Amino acid sequence: MALDRRLMIKFDWETLVFTLAITALSVLLLYSLPSAGRVGMHLKQLVWLGLGLLVMGIVSWIDYQRLSRYAYVLYGSVLASLVAVLWFAPVINGAQRWLDVAGFRIQPSELAKPALILAVAQYCAQVRSRSDGPMALRHILVPLVLMALPFALIAKQPNLSTSMILPMILAAMLLANGMRRQVWVTLGCLALGALPVLWFGLQDYQRLRLLTLFQPQTDLLGAGYHSWQSKIAIGSGGLWGKGLFAGTQSQLHFLPETHTDFIFAVLGEEMGFWGVLLLFVLFAMLLLHGLVVAAQARDHQGSLIATGVVVMLATQVFLNVGMTTGLIPVIGLPLPLMSYGGSSLITTCICLGLLMSVRRHCFIFS
Amino acid sequence: MRRSARALAQAAGRTYLQRLPPINDEGLRRRLWSIGILMMLGFALLLARTWQLQVIEGGQFLQLSEQNRLRDRQMKSLRGRILDRHGRILADNRPAYALLAMADDLPNADVLQASLRQLDIAIEPATLKSLRDKGTFQPISIQQDVHRDQVAYFAEHWMDFPGLYLDVEPLRLYPYKSLAAHLLGYLGQIRESQLEQDDYRGYPPGTMVGQSGLERVYENRLRGAPGLRRVEVDTYGRETQQLATKPPQPGTNLVTTLDFDLQRMAEGLLDAGEHTGSIVVLDPRDGQILAMASRPAFDPNIFASRLSATAWNTLTTTPKHPLHNRAIQGQYPPGSVFKIITALAVLEEGVATERTQVCCTGHYTYGRRVYRDWKETGHGCVTLYEALAQSCDVYFYQMGQALGIDRLARYAKAFGLGEVTGFAPRREARGLMPSSQWKRQARGEPWYGGETLSVAIGQGFTSATPLQVANFIAALANGHTLYQPYAVLRQESPAGTVLEVAKPTVIRQLDFQPQHLKAVVKGMWGVVNDPRGTGRRAQHPDIAIAGKTGTAQVVRIGKERGAKGQALLPEHQRDHAWFTAFAPVDNPRIVVVVMIENAGQGGSRFAGFAKTLIEAYLHGQTTLPSDLAVQAD
Fold first, then answer.
1. Burial class for B120, CB neighbours closer than 10 Å (0-12, 13-18, 19+)
2. Helix (H/G/I), strand (E/B), else coil: B83
3. Confidence (pLDDT) at B625
4. What is the domain extent for residue B345?
5. ipTM of the shown complex
6. Do residue B50 and residue A364 have CB atoms under 8 angstroms apart?
7. How far apart are CA B402 and CA B59, in angstroms?
8. Distance from CA of A231 to the nearest CA of B (A)
């Protein structure tokens, strides 16, 4: 086809700008961290970013409606790869998360998120076209199953933190879609009923994490350590931060995982409250823009997809920041666009690409 | 207006990008709004939380982050020196290299072993593992007192030793090795039980502290004050920069009462004959200890760096107990030396006078037992003077019987027998001075008269340490005061400023009749100077020396007596030998006590030791020509 002028004219520049701003912040912070002789993490992250932008561009180009025709197929292959992980993947640190494919390491659990978004959106669109009015209880079953399968497989890895995102995405998408009240009540009861099951299903170390949340001092060298050190790092940043390269907690290795899960603590320590405010403003604007896209989509499907993407990102941000500030127990969840790591960045770019696709394809030529 | 724009565009034939109408679903918009609001609430909550951490509690967290990264590292201080009375250094410090490691920088065990082997250092894998596990905040000591060659090798090839580094620390050095080792003491790693005591508050584990002798008693003066380095560290304990230092304060120097030459001489006398025993030299005017030698001894330098378990075991299980300070811990029957007390008691109690004669035939019957004199043929009829000079047992059996045990005990106790002198109250042995009360309490039996006879000549239950004996002789020599022996003359700052001067301590004043004292001293003078005195070997042409020999029985006198009989016994059953002396008689300035274990004969043989020591001491100073000898009447 001829060069699509939509690409250039009505390009979703808001998403791109916010994404670049946040990742710029990330690269800056990664640059300030000591990298112990390895090639600078910030440089590697830039490479991943380049790749991510490429993926984002490709996805946004494709009409999401056409992509959704393959939603179930994509969903199915992600599910299959999750099963493969449980069977074939090497156990590293007690967990199976990675698959080695032709020399590349991929983490299928990350891909489950966009796959779920697409699949649920597709199903809801199909239901809407067949029946009319808000979804009834019987229509909830399939989405629940769609969510539950990867949830169980990912939780089994074990990777509870990632699997927790899935129910949040589903809930938001269903909410946006509109359901009858009785459905809400039923779901609510189900959720409450699931809690005790979850508790017993938790492994010891996960339960320990929950408990040390309330009394981190009791186990400062073990499970409570990360949470405690993270709070010290953030708190000691004060209003203006200690300055780049001067975050003692991060620089001196008191804070572990500074480049990945605890990057927010590095932000808090080195850039202080104003840095945190800046990041929140950027995220808020990105996410609100996503909701605007959802409101202005040309059909419900697009709206659902956009909502799914926004809530996915929001949940991850809240969980990660909640963890680093000590509001919730420590979980292994990266901060989207900020944490170092290809998996998370690429997946986020895929999802943002979907968002951009929804935005772009509400225009046609006449 | 949109329509007209579109119409215009269409009219113009240009393509127009038209936005498709959004979904007409108010419900959707409402729901999206609610999601949006929830999200904003979430951000607000997180922002509030961050505000709480950073602004409200920011100060506390800043402090905590400082604590995390700051460490106070101790700098070892120079230990105070120990000197003899003339300033000769007996305990010193020397710089030594220690090989240290930072736990997290260490390579695996095999690589480390291999690299250490280049330095001829072997380290047990089990030790290494436990060192690693101990934690990453303090450097680990791999080897103390690294040899100079090893240091040179390490300095050249430091690249081959990742994670290791050298540091300088002061180590204790005793330049004269085993000289006065028991008195000076030695250092050892602080024990768990000590760490809990108040005395050792603030001492980090692994510190070398004085474990015996002066090193222990004056530990907190000798130690000085360690310095402090405030450093910034990373989580591995690696120092990234130094922020502040407080220099260490060196410890106080101790000037002891010891006379180096006397001490060396005393030890030499014991070593020459490979004797096991001790020599104590006191100044009777105030109780200063001029020399205290005990053999066998040990070299305290081996303790200066950490002692291996096998070396320690060897020291503590050697049958002759080299760590034992026989001068204060050895308890022996005083033997004939006790007769001095018996003699004085006799005069003071009026049981007899100087002129009272007792005829000694070589044995004495009491009750159903016959008590023998060491001289089979007896000494003939003797007065106090001859009885002392020739050490007649029978005279004292009779006198002892007349006195009774309790009166005898009273005098002995007045002279300090049966109680610690107070010199080293926690380490000294008490000895024992029996009495009827003691026997009832300790043995549940009444005192038998025959036992008094043994006590009168210093055998039986009585036991005393060489220091106690020296102390009582000193009191007798000065005639009026029992002093507490002491070993530290004064304490000085490293620069030489006098900080504290010791003053003599009086245990008790003695109140004996001067003529009685004179009579007893005359007898002691006779021991050395009378042609039939048992201590003739101590006789000196220019110095008036008084003394007394003694034999402490280890087993009861058998059939064969004297040297021949002793030679038949196994070594550990042979008699111990005493010789005590003081000089010059008129104005005594030195008291010598020699105690040789299992010598196999009486102290007469060792009288010469006392003479050597006395001569060296008195002639080493400006002296008057020899004091007039006391004439026998």
1. exposed
2. strand
3. 30
4. 261-298+324-619
5. 0.88
6. no
7. 88
8. 7
Q: Which CATH number do you get for residue B166? A: 3.90.1310.10
Look at the block and give the residue holding tokens 């120092």. Answer: B239
B561 & B471 share domain? yes
Could you say which DSSP state residue B52 is in? I
Do B544 and B571 fall within a single domain? Answer: yes
- CA–CA gap between residue B322 and residue B168 (Å, rounded): 32
**Which two tokens mark B315?**
């020291």
The string of pLDDT tens digits covering residues B535-594 is 999 999 999 999 999 988 877 655 555 666 667 677 777 889 999 999 999 999 999 999
Write the residue in B23, B64, B240 that is nearest to A303 by C-beta. Answer: B23
Domain co-membership, B392 together with B534: yes
Q: Does B269 share its domain with B287?
A: yes
DSSP run (H or E) holding B484: strand B481-484
Based on the fold, state whether residues B419 and B558 are members of the same structural domain: yes
Of the candidates A239, A254, A363, the beta carbon closest to that of B19 is on: A363
B336 is catalytic: yes
pTM: predicted TM-score of the whole model, two decimal places: 0.62
Asked if residue B568 belongs to a domain, the reply is yes
Question: Is the same domain home to B145 and B291?
Answer: no
Which of helix, strand or coil describes residue B550? Answer: strand
Query: What's the CA gap between B597 and B551, in Å, rounded?
Result: 10
Q: Give CA–CA dist A26/A33, Å, rounded.
A: 11
Residue where a domain terminates, one of B228, B252, B276 = B252
Do B282 and B220 share a structural domain? no
User: Taking CB atoms and an 8 Å limit, are B31 and A254 in contact across chains?
Assistant: no
**Which two structure tokens, joined as six digits, stand for B228?**
């402090």
Name the phi and psi angles at B497, rounded to 5: -70, 135
For chain A, the helix, strand and coil percentages under 3-state DSSP, each to the nearest 5:
70, 5, 25
The answer to whether A170 and A307 have CB atoms below 8 angstroms apart is no
Annotated domain spans of chain A: 5-360
User: In B, residues 67-106, which contact A (CB 8 Å cutoff)?
Assistant: 68-69
Number of structural domains in chain B? 2
